[in-house]
Amino acid sequence: GVRALVSILQSWYSLFTPTEATSIVAATVMSHNTILRLSLDYPQREELASCARTLALQCAMKDPQNCALSALTLCEKDHIAFETAYQIVIDAASTGMTYTQLFTIARYMEHRGYPLRAFKLASLAMTHLNLAYNQDTHPAINDVLWACALSHSLGKNELAAIIPLVVKSVHCATVLSDILRRCTMTAPGLAGIPGRRNSGKLMSTDKAPLRQLLDATISAYINTTHSRLTHISPRHYGEFIEFLSKARETFLLAQDGHIQFAQFIDNLKQIYKGKKKLMLLVRERFG
């Protein structure tokens, strides 16, 4: 009965791990089945819910990595408990959480209708991430694109706040150019407003905050090109030429992009003139 359940919830730490307590014990006690089986009245349900929330917050404090999301879910219906659970996540973000866990909670916050909290958590997640130049299939890429889309939908200030974090964490040229392309397709802050797609002013890649992203993307293409050329085999030549074509699209977004790209190609022809066949292909495609 109710008293036994309350007793288990209150002494969970001597019986279960924090993960077991939040994911199995509290979830079972709060379930619809339990309410029906014990034919609980309103005060009894409230008492159990209150004990379950207390347990959830204690577990989140003890093991934020594994219990924070369960705690938020269990505390959804109680404003104060929900705020407390959110604060526990924020406090643990810098030390005890991985970017995967923070992105998961950020997406949950957006789903619950708290886009600004989602943005804050996504920003914290970005500070833990490091995407190298050759990690173009990294599992976190979808989260990065989602975080940028979220910032873009919130407005110019949020986009301006996330771009320096992206530039610091992501060194993969193709991911950066994808973000850049998405940011230049619509004006910030208008994503969620139907019928206003074209009335907003599109952002220039020559001004802040997109300028920083454009410069970082061009740098990433240059660095990646040199990295790839140090150990390139003839069977990857075709793929490499395609990569340079993608790079050119990004260079051309800058005001003097065509000049920059021409200089870049001239440089390659100088430095790698020993790779005759490859440089012949470069000349054929890019002059």
From TrEMBL:
Keyword Metal-binding set for record: yes
Domain of life of the organism encoding this protein: Eukaryota
Listed Pfam families: ZSWIM4-8_C
Gene Ontology terms: cellular component: Cul2-RING ubiquitin ligase complex
Domain ZSWIM4-8 C-terminal: 101-278
Keyword check for Zinc-finger: yes
Key words, A-Z: Metal-binding, Zinc, Zinc-finger
PANTHER family in UniProt: ZINC FINGER SWIM DOMAIN CONTAINING PROTEIN 4, 5, 6, ZINC FINGER SWIM DOMAIN-CONTAINING PROTEIN 5
Name recorded for this polypeptide: Zinc finger SWIM domain-containing protein 5
